[in-house]
Amino acid sequence: MKKNKYIFLFASVLASQFFVSCNEDSIDKVNTLIAYEAIGGYENSDNVAAANLVTKFSFENSITDSKNGITGGVGKNVTYGNGIKGKAYQGSSNSFIAYSAVASSLVDLKSITVSMWINTNPHSGGAQSLFMLPKTTDFWGNIFSLIEGTGPATTMLMKNHLQKDVTPSIAWSGQFIEHGGANVLTNMFGTWKHVVWAYSGVSSTYSMYIDGQKLNLPASIAKRYASDPLSGGVGYGDLASSNVSKFIIGGFQQHLGAPWNAPDGWMLNYTGLMDEFRIYNAALSDNEVVALYKLEKDNR
Q1: How many structural domains does the chain have?
Q2: Chain centroid offset of residue 66 CA
Q3: How far is the C-alpha of 275 from the C-alpha of 90, rounded, in Å?
Q4: What is the pLDDT of residues 64-88, one digit of tens each?
Q5: Average pLDDT, the chain
Q6: Which domain holds residue 61?
Q7: Which of 83, 159, 289, 293: CA 20 to 30 A from 171?
Q8: What is the largest CA-CA distance in the chain?
Q9: CA distances from 124 to 89, 121, 158, 265, 282 (A)
């Protein structure tokens, strides 16, 4: 009888060890972290051109620039919705975000990449401003992106404005780059779209990407000349923002009050969603833009 008892105890110990071993294996399999596959050589979106990132707004129930390039934010009627990553800024016809201070890292940009996710619908009655770097001495400011409420309801006419360094012989202070006509943006409404535009002061070239795809732009848009290219004209060169005061998301500089006059009737606030708004001090490469798009879409 005692012998059988020992045999039973021994068997119980073995069974107990077996189940503990199985449970530990199960725990290891559940808890072991599987590394993300790198995209374009990057593990997360903040690694993309990290040294060139000067502003970043993720809008996680906050209007703060995590890079501190733009500070002193005050929101007017600001609300948040579901974004491509967490929360997003939800614009409306009477909302915007005003910032009182802009660091030299943004003022002194020579080249630029602007990246953002937008989710919006067609509108009428004027142009909605996505963002603007104001200029106290110029009606059009320094740099901005806006969406025109014109053209077919299924397409988006977008304009980007840049301020360039100019010589006294060139009577010109800034220019619009318009995605209209044959270059109008299609399939842009009712869903999240990743919009990136870039300008290189080194090569005087402009690029735009939608959902990681580089647009095939004509030379009249892609190459920015300060004089007639057929006569050996040279490129515009570096950006040259000046008389910078404040910064605005979702509106025009005229919404900020003095020293600007009241906004014209066509100057509309942005009414869609915006997420992961970034500005870089360089024109990102194709690989960097694709990686940024895929990583942010993958919530990384």
Answers
A1: 1
A2: 13
A3: 9
A4: 999 999 999 999 999 999 999 999 9
A5: 84
A6: 50-297
A7: 159
A8: 112
A9: 21, 10, 14, 12, 34
Q: Which two tokens stand for residue 222?
A: 């892609």
Q: Which two tokens stand for residue 200?
A: 């290189």
Q: What is the CATH number of the domain that holds 225?
A: 2.60.120.200
Whether residue 137 lies inside any domain: the answer is: yes
d(CA 157, CA 265): 19
Provide the token pair at 109.
């940009």
What is residue 294's three-state secondary structure?
A: helix
CA dihedral 217, 129, 202, 58 (to 10 degrees): -110
Residue 177's pLDDT band (boundaries 50, 70, 90)? Answer: confident
Which residue did the predictor score with more confidence, 90 or 27?
Answer: 90
pTM listed for this prediction: 0.84
Q: Which pairs with CB-CB distance under 8 Å and at least 24 residues apart come from 175-180?
A: 175/224, 175/236, 177/206, 177/221, 177/224, 179/208, 179/215, 179/221, 180/148, 180/151
Amino acid of residue 95: S
Specify whether the backbone of 81 is left (phi greater than 0), alpha (psi in -120 to 50) or beta: beta
Give the count of beta carbons closer than 10 Å to the beta carbon of residue 165.
15
Strands (E) located in the chain = 53-57, 70-76, 79-82, 87-90, 96-102, 112-119, 127-133, 143-148, 155-163, 174-179, 185-186, 193-200, 205-210, 213-214, 247-249, 267-269, 273-280
Tokens standing for 108? 């002194």
In a domain, 188, yes or no: yes
Output the CA angle 271-145-222, nearest 5 degrees: 140
